[in-house]
Amino acid sequence: MNTTGVNLSWYLVLYCITLIMAAETAAKPPLRSIMYFTGQHPIAPPIDQLGQVTHVAIAFMSPGAFNDPARSEWPFFTTVNQVRAQFRRGTKVMVAIGGWGDTHGFSTAALTEKARKTFAKSVAKMVEATGADGVDVDWEYPGGNGEDYKKVPNSAKAWEIDAYPLLLDELRAALGPEKVISAAVPGLRRDMLAFTHETIPKIMRSLNFLNVMTYDMMNRRDTVTKHHTGVKLSLEAVDAYIANGVPPQNVNLGFAFYTKYFKTDHEACAKAASAVGCPTLLLEDPQTGADLGRGGGFSWHDGIPGNVAKSFSRALSQGTYDYREGGYFYLDTEEDIWWTFDTPEAIKEKFPLIVEKKGLGGVFAWGLGEDAPAFQHLAALNEGLVEYSSGRKDEL
Predict the structure, then answer these.
(1) Where is the GH18 domain (predicted)?
(2) Which burial class, exposed, middle or buried, applies to 142 when counting CB atoms under 10 A from its CB (0-12, 13-18, 19+)?
(3) Are 278 and 388 within 8 A, CB to CB?
(4) Cα separation, 202 vs 209, whole angstroms
């Protein structure tokens, strides 16, 4: 018997298996984990709890700061070096620009080619001066449906839809290929005005990844109860971006380290077939869009507002998980308050149901310090990352 030929065959088989494993490993890089580090809660846990964190986005610098070509100073609540020292070596530290209501500076920057170039060059100067590894663009609602949507109609912002990717192009040109550029984008389909099948390819040519805000998906514009960071709505958001051309590995799933609550209509909810979908009181002014004060939220770091303290205590002890739509909730029929937030267990549910199912490239959370001092939700996120990463390796 010629054993040499048999041995060579086995060597070839093993060599091919090694090549396949290497290729699959390259195709499945470690998951990203981005933490927003906010001026409201600039707190980080001990560094041994941050092993899964790959990026930090310091929030926020105002976009208006970058429309002055003569500007050379960048005042902030912290520095990139101070933040970098609080995380593991190799963690990318980015500066987040913008935020929910701070959009005027973006509109000014995007209006003309000259303005776009001025903005991008100023951002590049800031990145060089601070030593940041890149920027996160938090122009969350280009094209309309932002905080001022009742005062400024979407028709007046329609031009932003085409201007948004042009602004990103200038940012990439100014920052170069090595710096990280990401964008925070809407989680509700109704708000994805600038993120269409036509615009997504133009947007993604400049970005490393998208942070899909799969939270606040119940807000004061709604009239019935739903999960503000639920699985069903999160899947709808992720599916919309993927269908419009975003590769799944460039999508990060958002997690909220805070609670939300809304006042409900007692009589209507008593007649409703389910706690999910029962009518709320009117939550925003129909003329101005202003908050009517019938809802709210607070982070795990914050003190519990006294007017909802007893109700929140019941939500923690009596709440339940909705396996149909995916989300922890409690309908307080004593005080007519709908509670919606993620428990650590609810966070871990999202890894097999969303991250693994859709093959996403990462996760992010708003925000790290909001989970202090216990950091239980961060721990659950880390656990999900470790388990999912282990599962990816087991597949090879």
Answers:
(1) 31-388
(2) buried
(3) no
(4) 13
CA distance 336 to 356: 36
Which candidate, 195, 179, 231, places its Cα nearest to that of 55? 179
Residue 366: closest CA among 229, 225, 222: 229
Q: What contacts 314, CB < 8 A, 6 or more positions away?
A: 330, 332, 334
**Cβ(370)–Cβ(341) below 8 Å:** no
Region of 375 (left: φ > 0; alpha: ψ -120 to 50; beta: rest) is left
Q: What number does CATH give the domain 30-256+342-394? A: 3.20.20.80
Q: Which residue is listed with tokens 């980080």?
A: 44
Gyration radius of the chain's alpha carbons: 23
Return the pLDDT at 26. 47
**What is the layout of strands, in order, in the sheet containing 258-263?**
295-299, 258-263, 337-341, 327-332, 320-322
State the alpha helices, DSSP H only, in 43-152.
80-84, 104-110, 113-130
Q: Looking at the predicted structure, is the pLDDT value of residue 385 above 80?
A: yes
Structure tokens at 38: 């906010």
Contact criterion met (CB below 8 Å) for 57 and 136: yes
DSSP-assigned letter for residue 31: P
Strands 295-299 and 55-61, how do they pair?
Answer: unpaired
pLDDT at 9: 61
Q: How far apart are CA 310 and CA 304, in angstroms?
A: 10
The confidence score (pLDDT) of residue 156 equals 95
Does the pTM exceed 0.85?
yes
Domain residue spans of the chain = 30-256+342-394
d(CA 322, CA 338) in angstroms, rounded, equals 14
Q: What is the pLDDT of residue 394?
A: 47
Averaged pLDDT score across all residues of the chain: 93
Distance CA 234, CA 213 (A): 9
DSSP string, 76-95: -SS-HHHHHTTS-TT-EEEE
Instruction: Output the pLDDT for position 19.
Output: 54
